[in-house]
Design brief:
The chain is of the alpha/beta class and 242 residues long. Helix 2 crosses helix 3. A 7-stranded mixed sheet has the order 3-2-1-4-5-7-6, with helices on both faces. It contains 8 helices and 7 strands, in the order ααβαβαββαβαααββ. The N and C termini lie far apart (41 Å). The protein is 42% helix and 21% strand. It has a domain of 165 residues: Rossmann fold (3-Layer(aba) Sandwich), CATH 3.40.50.
Amino acid sequence: MPTDEVFKDEITKVSDFKFGAQVAHVFDDMVNRSVPFYGEIQRMMAELAADRAVEGTMVYDLGCSTGTTMIGMNTMVNPSIKFIGIDDSSEMLRKCDEKLKSIGFSRPYELINTDLNAGVQISNASVVVLCLTLQFVRPINRERLLKKILSGINPGGSLILVEKILAEESGFNRDFIKYYYNYKRRNQYSEMEISQKREALENVLIPYKLSEDISLLRDVGFDHCEVFFKWYNFMGLIATKR
């Protein structure tokens, strides 16, 4: 697994974070060192999806990046069910296809290059996954995107949402961010790497509070929301369609 050194050297002017070829090459290392309990989150999503994926329907992974979530779900979800991975980065999709083929991924699957800010086509879905994806969709577009997702989910289907979030109270938010950066330091990220990545993400990753994410899901029409994972400023939710 190539090591993430994207922000290792000093950058004169840090530009907005992009999921281009440089990031795609090291993404698996980056996300494993940057997201607490990432492996466990993946396992939990696979379990949730396995119990809710219905034969004859499809499972969507929106913002599928290098395919880690599809690979995890593949071990538990009925093998006849088609997976559809969607991402706006052609470099990520290329890496994803390489990974799936390298492990002999045998279930039917399709990879689609689409910017979720412009909407998405979902149909006959029993499970839709948004793992660390909605936070990169511009806030003005999130409600519209979730409505499109809801309309494409069959009754009884589920949305699995994993996000970086803000604490409900600013004092806790400061603490949680401090603990998170300590986590990154424990994973051998330098102060320069932490600082430069924070600056690159500032206008790109826009987190909501947990309460705001739940309200948004309920407002667009999801029937029930349940937290299945929480670590300081990271959370996982599952929402169902009546």
